[in-house]
Amino acid sequence: MKQQGLVMVFALLVLLSLTILGISAVSSSLTQSKMAMSTQQAGLAFDAAEAAIAGVFFESEDEVLLSDANLTDPLSEARQGNVYDPQVNTLSCFDENTWTNRQMPSGALEIGKQNIGSENYQSTPATQSWSRTAFIREQACRGSSNVIGGSNVNCHVFIIRGCGKVDGKPSTVANTLAASVFGPASQ
To answer: Mind telling me which Pfam families this protein's record contains (predicted)?
Structure first.
């Protein structure tokens, strides 16, 4: 009788161990799945931020947009706005009024159009993509001003922040790029 009780206790201990291992495996699998989903969504938000930066350059090189007196590209618009001082200002993804704002649409960018709507960059999962552009300064172009056109050409320096956010997630992903564009020197 003692042996039967001992076998039963041993069997219960083995069953308890297997149950704990099974619960641990399921818990680990769920945690890894959540981490993979979070990484995927952060990647989608980063792609949206990168697309927002590319959209600024697309509009800034759009000959139709540049030749229309009623429309401005993001760099020209930023050049006409407030000067950005990195020591004093922050270029936030959420500063709606201070810096030039552009949205990235879900479809392809269109020639001759400003992207200032509010549609999603992608629908599944819903992802927003937008940019902020600010003018920093005008300076002599280093090493090339003599070749390009002398003293009547300067480099106009901008900062562009691409922002991306997946709906339902608490964080926004941002990427920042400094750009220097040749332009006429201010008098």
So the answer is: PilX_N
